[in-house]
Design a protein that fits this description.
heterodimer, A: 337 residues, alpha+beta, five-stranded antiparallel β-sheet, four-stranded antiparallel β-sheet, globular, B: alpha/beta, Alpha-Beta Plaits, TIM Barrel, eight-stranded parallel β-sheet, three-stranded mixed β-sheet, 15 helices
Chain lengths: 337, 503
C-alpha cells in the first residue's frame, strides 16, 4: 500500500486534531537497506548538530548511507527541524557482554543517549526497514511535506494530534518508535508517573515530554527483553480486573495473577486506545473501561484499526466487517508472507 | 523550696448550674481528678491528663477543660516544655518518658502535598459506577515472568512466585503489643481486620489465645526480646515481622514495667509474672545486615517458606540504603516507621528528636530500590503519622505499597491522644491492664468503630483514585506526577521528586 490511502483516512478525522502535529509510520519501505537500522533524526541545526551524531554513530558501528529525508515545502507547515535518515549497522562486538540481542541493545542505548543529551538531534525512529514521518501541522500537510504516497509499505500507522502539553514540537507528534515498535495513542495515561519510574529503572530514558513514549518502551521491555508474546504483553498493560481473575479456572487464574503482580507498575491507567506495530504484528487495545473508541475493520487479509469507522471506510470502501472490541480486548493482526 | 510546684497543665471546671452530681466523672476518671464533697464535685486539676473521659461521659455537658490556664512568661527559646523538662530532671536526674508520637512542632510534609484530579482531557471515574481496585499484594515479585505458550495455545507459567499477602485495601493495623494495650483493644482491632479483609500486627507481646480465631489475619512480630515467640506462634500468624526499630524511638529497645505483667500477659509473653519485660536495643543475634538475612531465612525455614516475612525499621537518615540491604535478603516487605509513630512509652528525647518523617523516608526508599533495580524484590509499608485517607494516598503516591495505622485505630476506639499510655491507667480501656478499665472497652462496639474507619478511608481512597482517573491502586504507587508540593523547599521537593504547585 502506498501512503495515499492512510492520508485520506486520517483526513476524515480532522475534528480530532488541531493542526499542530501529525505523523505516519510505514513498514517495508527500505528494502534496499533491509539489514540496516533506519534512523530518522530531527536536527535543529545541520551544521552544528550533525557532526556530533555522525561521530557517535561511527563510534558504535558503520553508517552505510545517510541523506536528508526528501521534503516538499508546504505553505502551512513551518519546517523547524531538518529531517535526516541514516542507514546504520552497529558493531555487535561493542555490545555489553552477555547481551542477547547486541545490535538492538546498541541502537536502543544510542537512541536513549542521543535523545537525553538534547544536543539538537532527536532520533525519532530506529527500526529496520521502517520509518516514522512526522511534523507539526495538519495530517494532509505533513503527508504532503514528506510525500508519503511515494512510500510503499505493508503496515501503516497514522495519527492526528490535539496537543495539550507540548504543542508545535515535532518530537511530540505520534507515532513514537523504538527499534521495531511504533505506537500511536489516543488518550491520556493517568499512570504515567508510575510507568515512567518503572521503565526508567530498566535503563530507558523518557525524553519526549509525553505519556505515549512510555508505551513504546513498555512494549519493547515486555516483548523484546522479557520475551512475552504480544498478546500477553498487552494483557500486562491492560490486565483483567481481579474480580474477573477470581472467576477464572485455576491454571488461568495463576498466570493472570502472576502477570498482574509482576507487571503492576507497567499497567496503564486512564483513557486510551493504542495501536502498536512491529515488523510482524499490529495490535490495537483500549483501557480496561474503554474510555476511548476503537473500531476494527477487515477486508480480505487486511486489518484496519481506527478511532472512527469513517476513516476505515475512506480507506477501504468495500470493507467486509466492522466491529467494536470490548474494553481491554486486544485485536492482533499478524503479517502473513 | 527550690523549684516549687509548676503551674497545672490543665484546668478542669464543673459548672455548678449544669452539674446534677451524678458522679459519673468520679467513676470514670482513673487519675483521681474528681471527688465528692457533700453535694458538690471537687476538682483537682493537677491530676488531669486531658483524656476527656469525664467530658465524654458527663450527661449535662457541665465539664470544661482549659489547657495552660497559667503560663510562664512567653519566650521563643525557653518554652514551657524546655523549662519543665529541666525542672523535672533537676529534681530526679532521670530520663524523661512520654507516650504517643513526636510532640515537637515540625512541619507536616503530608499537609504540604496536594493530590491531583482529572479535568476534560481525561474523564474522572465514578466509583459507584465503575470498578476501582484497591486490592494490594505484599511480598516479593519476580522481575520478569517466564510465560510460554504450549501447543494448542495454553499459557504455561514457569516462574514460581513467592507467597504474597493479599489485602483488600492498602490499610493495615500496625503492631501494638498486648501488654502495652489491653486484650479488648487487641480483640477489637483483630475483628476489624478480619471484617475488612486486612491484617493486624501482634506487636512483640505474643498472641493471646483469645486471638486465635483471628490468627489468619494476624502478623506475628519477632522483636529483640523474643517475647512469646515459639514455633506455634510463628505458625499461627499469616506473616511474620521482625522488628528492628520503631519510629517513636529509633535505636533503643522497650520496657514493659513489671506491674503490667499480669498472669495473662506472663503466659502470652512467656515471662514470669510481675517481672519487667525488657527488649534490648539491638537483637543480640543481629549485628549486621547478613545476620538479619540469616534470621529472615531462619524464620522462613521454620514456617516452610509459606509465609511472608517483613522487616520493620525506624526511618533514620540512611533508611534507603538499609532498605536496599533488606531487599537483598529473602524478606518480603520492609516496614518504614516514620518519626511521628506512636508508642506506649519512649524517652522524650528520642520521641521528639531522632529519625526522619515518613514522607521523605518512603520517597527515598522507593527511589533507591528503583535505582538499584530491586523495587520488585520487596514491598514497602509506610507507617508513623497516617491520619486520614489523604495521607494514605500521598504515602502510596510517594512509593509505598500499603500503610500501617496505629494511633488512628486507637483514636477510633476513643483514645484522645493524651499521651499517658505508660501510666497504665487509660480511662478508655485501651492502654491499661486494670480489669475494671479494660472492661470499659466493648470489643463488639469498638471493632465496629475500627472497621468503620478502615471502610471509610477505603471509600475515600476509591473516590480519590477515581477523581485522578485511576482505576487500580498500583497505578497510584510511586506516581509522584500526581502530587504537587505546596510551600515545600527545593531540597525537599528533590527528595520527594515532586514538582511545585503550578508547575
Amino acid at each position: 500500500m502506498d501512503g495515499s490511502g492512510i492520508r485520506q483516512a486520517l483526513s476524515m478525522m480532522n475534528e480530532r486534531g488541531s493542526g499542530e502535529g501529525a505523523g505516519y509510520a510505514a513498514y517495508g519501505i527500505y528494502p534496499d537497506y533491509r539489514d540496516c537500522y533506519a534512523l530518522h533524526v530531527f536536527f535543529d541545526n545541520i551544521r552544528e548538530n550533525k557532526p556530533l551524531l555522525d561521530s557517535a554513530l561511527a563510534q558504535w558501528g558503520t553508517i552505510e548511507h545517510d541523506e536528508a529525508i526528501p521534503t516538499y515545502g508546504r505553505p502551512d507547515l513551518r519546517a523547524v527541524h531538518t529531517p535526516w535518515r541514516y542507514f546504520f549497522k552497529p558493531d555487535p562486538s561493542l555490545a555489553p557482554p552477555g547481551s542477547a540481542a547486541p545490535e538492538d541493545d546498541i541502537v536502543s542505548a544510542l537512541v536513549m543517549q542521543v535523545n537525553a543529551a538534547r544536543r539538537g538531534a532527536l532520533i525519532f525512529s530506529s527500526g529496520k526497514d521502517l520509518g516514522v514521518f512526522k511534523a507539526g501541522g495538519w495530517p494532509e500537510d505533513v503527508a504532503d511535506f514528506y510525500r508519503i504516497e511515494d512510500y510503499e509499505g505493508y503496515i501503516w500507522l497514522a495519527h492526528n494530534r490535539y496537543p495539550t502539553n507540548t504543542p508545535g514540537w515535532w518530537g511530540g507528534a505520534h507515532p513514537f518508535n523504538l527499534l521495531d515498535w511504533s505506537v500511536v495513542h489516543n488518550g491520556e495515561i493517568t499512570s504515567y508517573g508510575t510507568n515512567r519510574r518503572y521503565i526508567e529503572s530498566f535503563g530507558y530514558t523518557c525524553t519526549m515530554y509525553t505519556d505515549t513514549e512510555v508505551v513504546a518502551y513498555l512494549i519493547d521491555l515486555l516483548v523484546r527483553r522479557h520475551g512475552l508474546d504480544v498478546d500477553l504483553a498487552v494483557r500486562a498493560l491492560a490486565p483483567p480486573f481481579w474480580e474477573e481473575i477470581g472467576r477464572m479456572p485455576a491454571a488461568e487464574r495463576e498466570w493472570n495473577s502472576a502477570l498482574r503482580l509482576t507487571y503492576a507498575s507497567a499497567m496503564m491507567n486512564g483513557p486510551f486506545a493504542i495501536v502498536a506495530a512491529n515488523r510482524e504484528v499490529m495490535v490495537g487495545f483500549t483501557d480496561r473501561g474503554k474510555l476511548r473508541p476503537m473500531v476494527v475493520g477487515e477486508c480480505g487479509d487486511r486489518l484496519y484499526i481506527s478511532s472512527e469507522e469513517a476513516a476505515i471506510r475512506a480507506m477501504e470502501p468495500r470493507v467486509e466487517s466492522i466491529r467494536m472490541p470490548a474494553a481491554g480486548e486486544p485485536v492482533i493482526g499478524r503479517v502473513v508472507a | 523550696m527550690i523549684i516549687g510546684s509548676l503551674p497545672p497543665r490543665y484546668r478542669v471546671s464543673v459548672d455548678p448550674v449544669r452539674c446534677m452530681e451524678c458522679g459519673r466523672c468520679i467513676e470514670n476518671c482513673a487519675y483521681g481528678v474528681f471527688s465528692r464533697d457533700g453535694d458538690r464535685i471537687q476538682v483537682n486539676s493537677r491530676n488531669c491528663t486531658a483524656c476527656h473521659r469525664c467530658i465524654a461521659c458527663c450527661p449535662r455537658d457541665a465539664i470544661t477543660l482549659e489547657e495552660h490556664p497559667c503560663d510562664y512568661r512567653s519566650h521563643p527559646l525557653w518554652t514551657r516544655e524546655a523549662k519543665e523538662a529541666i525542672y523535672n530532671q533537676a529534681r530526679t536526674g532521670k530520663i524523661i518518658l512520654a507516650g504517643m508520637g513526636n510532640a515537637l512542632d515540625y512541619p507536616v510534609i503530608f499537609d504540604r502535598l496536594v493530590l491531583d484530579a482529572c479535568q476534560v482531557t481525561n474523564p474522572s471515574l465514578d466509583p459507584l459506577r465503575e470498578p476501582i481496585e484497591l486490592v494490594t499484594h505484599l511480598g516479593k515479585k519476580p522481575a520478569r515472568l517466564d510465560l510460554r505458550r504450549r501447543e494448542g495455545g495454553d499459557v504455561e507459567l514457569r516462574t514460581t512466585l513467592t507467597p504474597n499477602l493479599r489485602i483488600e485495601t492498602p490499610i493495615m493495623i500496625g503492631h501494638m503489643s498486648y501488654g502495652a494495650i489491653s486484650l479488648n483493644a487487641h480483640l477489637s482491632m483483630a475483628r476489624a481486620a478480619k471484617n475488612t479483609g486486612t491484617f493486624m500486627g501482634t506487636g512483640e507481646g505474643g498472641l493471646h489465645a483469645a486471638l486465635y480465631p483471628y490468627q489468619d489475619r494476624m502478623i506475628v512480630q519477632v522483636a529483640s526480646g523474643r517475647f512469646g515467640v515459639n514455633i506455634d506462634y510463628l505458625e499461627r500468624g499469616a506473616a511474620v515481622e521482625i522488628k528492628i526499630g520503631q519510629g517513636a524511638k529509633p535505636g533503643i529497645g522497650g520496657h514493659l514495667p513489671g506491674e503490667k505483667v499480669c498472669a495473662d500477659i506472663s503466659r502470652t509473653r512467656m515471662i514470669p509474672e510481675g517481672s519487667d519485660a525488657i527488649s534490648p536495643a539491638p537483637h543480640h543475634d543481629i549485628y549486621s545486615i547478613e545476620d538479619l538475612a540469616q534470621l529472615v531465612r531462619g524464620l522462613k525455614e521454620a514456617t516452610e517458606w509459606k509465609k511472608p516475612v517483613f522487616v520493620k525499621i525506624a526511618a533514620v537518615h540512611n533508611v534507603a540504603a538499609i532498605a536496599a540491604g533488606i531487599a537483598r535478603s529473602p524478606a518480603d516487605a520492609v516496614v518504614v516507621d516514620g518519626f511521628r509513630g506512636g508508642t506506649g512509652a519512649a524517652p522524650t528525647v528520642f520521641r521528639d528528636h531522632v529519625g526522619i518523617p515518613i514522607e521523605a523516608a518512603v520517597a527515598s526508599v522507593d527511589q533507591k530500590l528503583r535505582d538499584q533495580g530491586i523495587r520488585n524484590e520487596i514491598s514497602v509499608i509506610a507507617s508513623g503519622g497516617i491520619r486520614g485517607s489523604a495521607d494514605v494516598a500521598k504515602a502510596i503516591a510517594l512509593g509505598a505499597d500499603a500503610v500501617y495505622i496505629g494511633t488512628a485505630a486507637l483514636v477510633a476506639m476513643g483514645c484522645r491522644v493524651c499521651g499517658n499510655c505508660y501510666r497504665g491507667l487509660c480511662p478508655w480501656g485501651i492502654a491499661t491492664q486494670r480489669p475494671d478499665l479494660v472492661a470499659r472497652l466493648n470489643p463488639d462496639e469498638a471493632s465496629n468503630h475500627v472497621a468503620n474507619l478502615i471502610r471509610a478511608w477505603t471509600l475515600e481512597l476509591a473516590e480519590l483514585l477515581g477523581a485522578a482517573g485511576i482505576n487500580s491502586i498500583e497505578s497510584l504507587r510511586g506516581n509522584r506526577d500526581r502530587l504537587r508540593g505546596y510551600m515545600l523547599d527545593e531540597g525537599l521537593m528533590q527528595v520527594l521528586d515532586v514538582r511545585s504547585v503550578g508547575a
